[in-house]
Amino acid sequence: MDKTLDRRSTAVELLENMFDVEMRFLRSDSDRVDMLAGAFHAEVVVHEPQSLPYAGDWNGLDGIGALFHKMQEIWSDVAVEGLQASQSDDTVYMSCTLRLTARANGAVVVQPFAEVLRFKEGRLIEGTPFYYDTAEIATTLGSSVLAAETA
Q1: 3-150 — its CATH code?
Q2: Is 120 within 8 Å of 90 (Cβ atoms)?
Q3: What HEC string does 109-128 produce?
Q4: Helix or strand holding residue 135 (H, E)
Q5: SS3 of 63, please?
Q6: Per-residue pLDDT reduced to its tens digit, 15-73
């Protein structure tokens, strides 16, 4: 068996599990962060860019749950198109086209997106997303959302 295909399959499986757990958590309308433990390590940290309304480091299952709820407040729809992934040891490199729909005004942002994800024991321990144009995202969300975040 080709090792490259085997590694790519593993990377996609890790991502699919992570997205599945996230979606089940959000659909449940629950604050039970233990639901996230199937894909997110207890010591997980996600580093969001400082220029977004959900900026900063989100730590642990409580932090990831809060991040997901915060993003759900801001975006009415998040779609991932053309997902590609590769893996080197415990790190997965993901790229896609991200389609974000702003809850406040219905505006849509479509742009390239990448993320470096590190896994431990099959669960995400660290994630660093790279948005193509955070200024476009901020403009699309409008000053009212950003002003509420800084208040």
Answers
A1: 3.10.450.50
A2: yes
A3: EEEEEEEEEEEECCEEEEEE
A4: helix 134-150
A5: helix
A6: 999 999 998 888 887 778 999 999 999 999 999 999 999 999 999 999 999 999 999 99
Report d(CA 71, CA 134) in Å as an integer.
14
Residues 37/24, Cβ–Cβ less than 8 Å: no
User: How many other C-beta atoms can be found within 10 angstroms of the C-beta atom of residue 5?
Assistant: 9
Q: What is the pLDDT of residues 98-131, one digit of tens each?
A: 999 999 999 999 999 999 999 998 999 999 999 9
Question: Would you say residue 145 has pLDDT above 60?
Answer: no
Q: Which two tokens stand for residue 138?
A: 């901020």
Single-letter amino acid, residue 117: L
For residues 111 and 117, is the Cβ–Cβ distance under 8 A?
Answer: no
Rg (CA), the chain: 16
Domain-by-domain residue ranges, the chain? 3-150
**Are 77 and 98 spatial neighbours (Cβ–Cβ below 8 Å)?**
no
- Dihedral over Cα of 91, 40, 57, 128: its sign: positive
